[in-house]
Design goal:
Layout (H helix, E strand, L loop, with lengths): L2 E3 L10 H5 L5 E3 L4 E3 L19 E3 L8 H11 L15 H4 L12
Antiparallel strand pairs: 1-4, 2-3
């Protein structure tokens, strides 16, 4: 079991979750965070910290969201670890309610 960052994070990139992670499993990309499933210890501390509900347990992924587990795994291998919180992008609040953001992902 692991936790997965969903597409709701894209262009929001709040880092509240990073501060509570005891193992530094978050990785930062240009406009999204991902979780390294090999490093995640399933503590669930990050899930309630996300203001856009972009973190879920892999057991709770819908069929459509399964691709995001693979995406987290892939991108966590190339993006750097993020272990401290940062300010969200200036327009993050404008993106909070936008659906279907996978098209905006910057790798």
């Amino acid at each position: 079991m692991t936790f997965v960052v969903l597409e709701q994070c894209i262009k929001c990139k709040y880092t509240d979750c990073v501060e509570v992670c005891p193992v530094d499993c978050f990785h930062e990309g240009p406009n999204m965070l991902v979780i390294d499933p090999d490093e995640c210890i399933d503590c669930a501390l990050c899930e309630p910290e996300c203001p856009v509900d972009a973190i879920v347990c892999d057991d709770d992924l819908s069929a459509e969201q399964q691709q995001l587990l693979q995406l987290n795994q892939e991108l966590s291998q190339i993006w750097p670890v993020l272990s401290t919180a940062k300010a969200a992008p200036a327009d993050a609040d404008d993106w909070k309610e936008v659906p279907d953001k996978l098209q905006y992902l910057e790798k």
